[in-house]
UniProtKB/TrEMBL annotation:
Protein name per its UniProtKB record: Branched-chain-amino-acid aminotransferase
Annotated function: Acts on leucine, isoleucine and valine.
Family: Belongs to the class-IV pyridoxal-phosphate-dependent aminotransferase family.
GO molecular function: branched-chain-amino-acid transaminase activity
Keyword Plastid in record: no
């Protein structure tokens, strides 16, 4: 097996022969949307039990060749990550807390019986891709290049066991401002029938299977005029867990922030951890504890809960105006975004875009 230093320094680059012309790229970057367009290159690194991680490549973005018996297609042995590259005013390109994503991907890998990619190799893979496709990092305000690392079990074997062959990839997609018309508060649908995770299940791992389980309740949310679904704990169906792909915070009248504690079935967001840190830096009390949906509803009715927001890499911080569920609406769907919500959003994006000092050393320069 090659050493970590060998593989980290051995990326082969095979430039794409189908790279888009600058003019075509600029048309896409002028209005990229989210997750619709992909850059010219991708990363792939193979893994086997015998050889470990090997054959790290920067190659043309394009379809994968998979055996129809590949385990990922049958047993959903897949994990992923999501982070962004940000262009700063001087043209340099940075990413936010990539080590935290690498470590989370290692935890997800352990839970899904997939190989763990070392942190150095994860960060190097991001650096290699962003270097190859630097021209795809947009520069308009609040735009970024969304990076999607993922690992699949690609062994052709229908027996059920942990992977003996896997592959790690990174693809990249330019992202416009999440709120094209300015940050707009959303309504959230409380799912009382479905859970996204189980006790002892994969809720704390970032894996495709969790998302597959969230799509039907997410559709129910849309059908009820809500942007996102909120899940309750799988045991008692009482405590807030998180949205389909974002963590959740409440702001109390006395200025305290409250967020569900990590229960084992909640995904530990890097944005969540960063919001907690920035709030504590300001002297705000942050409670990580069990919160019932009833506490939120009662709090909105009594005025004890004055703001709520969701957070994650894609949308950063999204204000929540109302909580809806079967037969009830709590809050005002037309309420404006909360003050603390918006100032935390501003502080975090200022750090990410290099408009403000980075007191915790969260930013890593890529280009
Ligand atoms: C990725 C994800 C989040 C947010 O995590 P960030 O690291 O902040 O982007 C929250 N919940 C789920 C289920 C997720 O998959």
């Amino acid at each position: 097996m090659s050493t970590l230093a060998d593989i980290t320094s051995s990326f082969r680059t095979k430039p794409s022969e189908k790279a888009r012309a600058a003019a075509d790229r600029e048309v896409i970057l002028a209005d990229p949307g989210f997750g619709k367009h992909f850059t010219d290159h991708m990363i792939s690194i193979d893994w086997t039990t015998e050889r470990g991680w090997h054959d790290a490549e920067v190659r043309a973005y394009g379809p994968l060749m998979l055996d129809p018996a590949a385990s990922v297609l049958h047993y959903a042995q897949e994990i992923f990550e999501g982070l962004k590259a940000y262009r700063h005013a001087d043209g340099s390109i940075w990413t936010f807390r990539p080590q935290a994503n690498a470590e989370r991907m290692q935890r997800s890998a352990r839970r899904l019986a997939l190989p763990e990619l070392p942190t150095e190799l994860f960060v190097e893979s991001i650096r290699q891709l962003v270097n190859a496709d630097a021209a795809w990092v947009p520069s308009a305000p609040e735009t970024s290049l969304y990076l999607r690392p993922f690992t699949i079990a690609n062994e052709s074997f229908l027996g059920v066991r942990s992977a003996q062959r896997a592959a790690y990839y990174v693809i990249a997609s330019p992202a416009g401002p999440y709120f094209a018309k300015g940050v707009a508060p959303v309504s959230i649908w409380l799912s009382t029938e479905y859970a996204r995770a189980a006790k002892g299940g994969t809720g704390a791992a970032k894996c495709g299977g969790n998302y597959a389980a969230s799509l039907l309740p997410q559709k129910e949310a849309y059908d009820n005029g809500c942007a996102q679904v909120l899940f309750l704990d799988p045991l008692e169906g009482k405590y807030l867990e998180e949205l389909g792909g974002m963590n959740v915070f409440l702001v109390k009248k006395d200025g305290t922030l409250v967020t569900p504690e990590l229960s084992g079935s909640i995904l530990e967001g890097v944005t969540r951890a960063s919001i907690i840190q920035l709030s504590r830096d300001r002297g705000i009390t942050v409670e990580e504890r069990k919160v019932t949906a009833q506490e939120w509803r009662d709090g909105m009715a009594s005025g004890d809960v004055v703001e709520a927001f969701a957070c994650g890499t894609a949308a950063v911080v999204t204000p929540i105006a109302a909580l809806k569920g079967p037969g009830f609406v709590a809050g005002d769907e037309n309420a404006p975004a909360g003050k603390l919500t918006m100032s935390l959003r501003q502080e975090l994006t200022d750090i990410q875009y290099g408009r403000r000092a980075d007191p915790h050393g969260w930013m890593t320069r890529l280009v």
